[in-house]
Amino acid sequence: MTDPSPQPSIGRWALIVDDHPLFCDALELTLKSVADFAIVRTANSLAAALEELDGLPDPGIILLDLNLPDVSGLDGLLRLKRAAEGAQIIIVSSMTENAVINSAIAAGAAGYVPKHSSRATFKEAMDRIAEGAVYKPGGFVEGEGEDTLPDTDSIERLASLTNQQARILHLICEGKLNKQIAYDLSIAETTVKAHVTAIMRKLGVHSRTQAVLVANEVKFTTLLPSQD
Fold first, then answer.
1. What are phi and psi of 190, to 5 degrees?
2. Cα(87)–Cα(57) distance, rounded to whole angstroms?
3. Would you call 22 helix, strand, or coil by DSSP?
4. Which of 2, 3, 82, 152 has the fewest Cβ atoms within 10 angstroms?
5. How many angstroms separate the CA atoms of 61 and 12, rounded?
6. Going edge to edge, which strands form the sheet with 39-43?
7. Among 218, 37, 48, 30, which residue's Cα sits nearest to residue 116?
8. What angle (nearest 5°) sits at the alpha carbon of residue 89, between those of residues 84 and 91?
């Protein structure tokens, strides 16, 4: 993480989330040259990113790599969207498959920029997003490859979960029972049961097992590059 001072103002700072220091440095220079961000912070993991966001006004832009040490696929995007609802999140990834781009857009990404893109492409993306559009890279074919990843409807349903519902679903995925979840979150077990019911309704499933399957689908295991 970077030095916490100076304190950023609402919307006028940016956050880069990527575990490659040299690429973070390059993105920081790019952001400062193509957009009016005086303060740019970096984080090398989702946990570090969430720590950066804690207690601060939402950044204007978050640049996010999908493949991080502590998260993969769309899970990081979904969690950052809940943590910084006012931020525009742009995926910056080496994965350029249409299926991945389709899914990221369905999950609420404001844009998708391949890692090999030029500075001019990043400026184009920023300009398009500032106009209220969603930026999609050149060569992207709308709808192509959707059958190789979870359907966008499931992704949109996951994106609709509240922060508390998302936390509870995460604990369900860890195999925890309602009583354990209630203890971990310091809430009543009846409250957990109500949330679980709401989660299953939003996901369109009828059991905790089905909810876990839907949640696990967003990790893109077969498309992510190796961590070795």
1. -65, -35
2. 10
3. helix
4. 3
5. 8
6. 39-43, 13-17, 61-64, 88-93, 111-114
7. 30
8. 140
Hey, what amino acid is at 177?
L
Fold (CATH) for 13-146:
Rossmann fold (3.40.50)
Tens digit of pLDDT at every position of the chain (228 positions)? 444 455 554 458 999 999 999 999 999 999 888 887 878 999 999 999 999 999 889 999 999 998 898 887 788 898 899 899 899 999 999 888 888 888 888 889 999 999 989 999 999 999 999 899 999 988 776 665 555 555 677 888 888 888 899 889 989 998 999 999 999 999 999 999 999 999 999 999 999 999 998 888 776 554 444 443
Q: Residues for the chain: how many in total?
A: 228
Q: Of 84, 83, 81, 89, which is closest to residue 111 (Cα–Cα)? A: 89
**What does the domain layout of the chain look like in residue ranges?**
13-146, 161-219
> SS3 for 34?
helix
41 - beta bridge partners? 15
Q: How far is CA 216 from CA 65, 76, 209, 221, 227, in A?
A: 18, 13, 11, 9, 18
Which fold, 161-219? Arc Repressor Mutant, subunit A (1.10.10)
What one-letter code names the amino acid at 131?
E
pTM (2 d.p.) = 0.78
